[in-house]
Amino acid sequence: MKVSVIIPVLNEEDAIAKVIADIPQAGNNGEIAVQEIIVVDNGCTDNTVAIAERGGARVVTEPRRGYGYACLAGIAALATSVPDIVVFLDGDYSDYPTDMPRLLHPIRNGEAALVIGARTQGGAKEALLPQARFGNWLACFLIHRFFGVRYTDLGPFRAIRYADLLALNMQDKTFGWTVEMQLKAAKLGIAVCEVPVRYRKRIGTSKITGTFTGTLKAGYKILTTLFYHRFLT
User: Fold this and answer.
1) What is the pLDDT of residue 207?
2) Which fold has domain 2-231?
3) In this predicted model, what pLDDT tens digit does every residue of 15-26 receive, in sequence order?
4) Dist. CA 228–CA 170, nearest whole Å
């Protein structure tokens, strides 16, 4: 199965080479066949882009700041490659790219179409900032109350069949991206599962939960996304 990896980045020059180098390029019996790595430049002012290109990644530019904007730009770039599976991965080396086979296995075996890397199941709670742990718990609690589905994480490390990704018609431009994907998958009846993944403290400072303002903005957007899809769609 052909796999494309999308990595949104904003000034990750100290981490991006490690992320790219750790992405599995081949596996037993053809389980993994990463055909391309797309790094989305979301306004970098350091050497991230040059380092990513040296590592063999295709760089796409999205000057409008926002995690959702970057992911949407990466998806648009897939039109020229048409993969079977798309993997989303952070560029700060907090995720373990070597855990990718765990995410791909349920899709390859027909058990799920969307697989969420569950950091809380992988013994990585200590690597998440307290505000991130609380926000994650609250969002998952509300998803269960509103939509009747259980998640333990909104982690960014995830894999999804390309056809199902297009069917979701993702719209969020900023912090509500991951929760929008999981809510829409539940509403459309797309098979979802979680698998434990490892997680570590990122290289550098988080642009979201690493700042008070970023934490408030992310929390507000996640909650408004939840209420919008529960009561207005």
Assistant:
1) 58
2) Spore Coat Polysaccharide Biosynthesis Protein SpsA; Chain A (3.90.550)
3) 999 999 999 975
4) 14
